Amino acid sequence: MSDVDENGIGPLPDGGYPVPEPPTDPGPTRERWMWTAIVVGTGLFIFALMVFGGFGGVRPDLQQVSVGEVLSGSQLPADRYGSSEIRISGWFAQVTATCTGPTAGTPGSSSAPSWLEATCPMRVLLPEQPSGQMSQDELLRKGLRLAAPNGQPFPPQTPPGAGTAGLEQLVFVGHFDDPAAQHCFPSRVLQCRNTFVASEYAGQLR
Question: Cα separation of 95 and 125, whole Å?
């Protein structure tokens, strides 16, 4: 009786078996390594943009300070920073419907308050996230007043206590001691000079 089974597999004359050699894996080729490196490098680059780009915010070439630093200085902001552009981070809040005080008049009008001295709507930047309804006087006392010639750029109105959509601080780009301060009413010139005139903003974290 033959030792060869029905599948034709059996001992050879020298005692071996005609079993196929296992396939060999040549391992990653140079081309595969190159593509892997490209994919990984692209992923790391995108990740870096998301992380570090968010912290940089707008105009990373400018000096950035917190609104707490601005308010705690021994000098008034206009004297300390002049009219140079800087970045200021803080929690944005505004009062629109219930604010009191002058509103911006028609551009070119000599009898109405200018955009720089108007307090309605009132917009401020706070060192801490507001935890509830704050009066207009309290916001002015604790925060830094903001303004812009065209009323922009500012975030939309959010519920009281929600801060900037309740999510994050903002970084505003702008300057103090705007030339328009000389056109404010004499009693408001100091306030106008120390109002931060914003030109753009972005989230501090993305």
Answer: 12
